[in-house]
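I hope you will forgive my troubling you with a question about protein structure. I should value your view on which stretches of the chain appear to form regular backbone elements. Here, with my thanks, is the record as I have it:
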Amino acid sequence: MVRVLVADDERLITAGIRTVLESGEGIEVVATAADGSAAVREAVRHRPDVALLDITMPVLDGLGALTELRRQAPSVRAVMLTSFGTEPNVLRALRDGAAGFVLKHCAPDELIRAVRAAHDGDAYLSPEVTRMVLGMVTPAAGRRAEATTRLTALSPREIEIAELVAEGLSNAEIGRRVHMSEPTIKTYMSRVLTKLGCTNRVEVALLVRDAR
């Protein structure tokens, strides 16, 4: 059972997310919160596997909640909820260890996939968010040089996998693209993460973007 905390200051959205998630097999919403501070308290109390955090919440916003979760409940995997398009802090959240980003208007099955990916130790980034984030980033010369150097540790196949991660593809989608099984792609991803010193696929995507 995947245990989930949902934090959003709009009750209707919270209720809708609960309904969507609990329609998925093996997912249970164990707590909800209307602000970031309450989200941290509930996470410490219930120890969910995954926390869905709205970026814009009162008292303590989603970014602050993410920081506190990493300090007080580091086992909880945080997936950020956002409305599309303008948040300047998306990149900061990804660099601060968010397990992914999901748009509030995403399809129900995408939300379920994101939660399951986070639970499995993976990360999920909506393709639209991937494009938005990568479009926001203009690598400085120093970052580009560092990223290029780090990527030289990868084999040609691992570089190909990393490039597809940067496009926002899931392991299953990458497998279909390169004609490999999903378990094989997971093995490659584990190698990529280790060689690059990244904690999740979001960091891999940003590193690939820095190197371009």
Notes: Residues 121 and 132 are 24 Å apart (CA to CA). The mean pLDDT is 87. Residues 2-134 form a domain with the Rossmann fold fold (CATH 3.40.50.2300).
